[in-house]
């Protein structure tokens, strides 16, 4: 009887440990394009412009203040004159006026805050930046959806394609290896220009998640260099203490 109980506990533990891995293995594989994330001020400034004009209407960035954009080379005056539509002071958070209850009625779900979305979307298939970069380029026309749009990365998404004027209109074509997209109506930008614009937008969203990332990495290198020097000194001191002891 005791051995049966032990065997049952072992089997239950194995199920608990390996069920998540089996579930992921059984799920569909998500193919993501590598996002060309940049930390260049010009790219981040262009991304901020796209974010404010196309994303901030529905999605907030409520963990970031407008004056933080000075870290990417923008002056307080340029922020106030060109990028502030929802706040009164540059110290205000980048919030939106849309109510979550109303947004849920309109879109089926309240649009998420995007401050940390690049981190939240990371998975075994790629980084959050890869997911965003692929997602924003995979919208296509779908007359069966309430918004008239669908997405290959996020099927039946409630979000409309707010960047369609830039990209144009794509349609999904069923193929042997899955659906592919075909551009049927060009937008204001060429395919290459649109990809570059999305890369800048994604770079900015990644930057929003941790504005001090580059400073943190720089400090980290100095700390590692200091520890390496300290190790050399400590090792030399240890050898000096023990040189006469055998």
TrEMBL record:
Main location: membrane
TM region(s), chain numbering: 219-237
Keywords assigned: Heme, Iron, Membrane, Metal-binding, Signal, Transmembrane, Transmembrane helix
Secretion signal span: 1-25
Subcellular location as annotated: Membrane
Pfam families: Cytochrom_C1
GO molecular function: electron transfer activity; heme binding; metal ion binding
Binding site for heme c: 55, 58-59
InterPro entries documented for this protein: Cyt_c-like_dom, Cyt_c-like_dom_sf, Cyt_c1
GO cellular component, one term: membrane
Obligatory cofactor(s): heme c
Cytochrome c domain segment(s): 42-205
Annotated cofactor note: Binds 1 heme c group covalently per subunit.
Protein name per its UniProtKB record: Cytochrome c1
Organism name: Parazoarcus communis
